[in-house]
Design a protein that fits this description.
alpha+beta; two-stranded antiparallel sheet
Length: about 140
């Protein structure tokens, strides 16, 4: 039942995915388990990046969960079964792309970068959608 309620809740949806923002976070990166445990204990998102606010000219640390994101941008109010269906599909694609990109970063020191066609196609799809969603929210 909690899952049904969660399907209709507004969520911050990132224009720049969290897995990319985490590469710029302040402090030592933590595993998902460490982040979840800390959040359960403190109810504070401790993952922060430096964020420059053009309007105010200020540079300060902000939680990754709140920067480069918009509340409910992918909600489809016509889909009464699950208004966040598009976000769920994008999250699945993003998760797959994050795994491929992580493997590429790990292979960099060895200089041996090889991708299967299916992985390359998935990355192309991900990058196309990233370009599309970033462009639509910056104009």
């Amino acid at each position: 039942m909690a899952g049904a309620r969660r399907a209709h809740a507004s969520q911050y949806q990132h224009v720049i995915p969290r897995f990319i923002l985490r590469r710029f976070q302040l402090g030592i990166p933590k595993s998902r388990k460490e982040r979840d445990e800390e959040f359960e204990r403190t109810h504070v998102d401790s993952e922060c990046i430096l964020y420059y606010d053009v309007a105010t000219g200020s540079l300060d640390a902000r939680p990754i969960g709140k920067v480069y994101s918009v509340l409910g941008i992918y909600q489809d109010v016509h889909n009464t079964g699950n208004i966040n269906e598009l976000e769920h599909k994008l999250a699945h694609l993003e998760s797959q792309a994050a795994s491929i990109i992580k493997n590429l970063h790990e292979a960099l020191p060895w200089g041996d970068l090889a991708l299967k066609c299916s992985s390359l196609e998935l990355l192309q799809k991900f990058l196309f959608l990233m370009h599309f969603r970033t462009k639509s929210h910056t104009s």
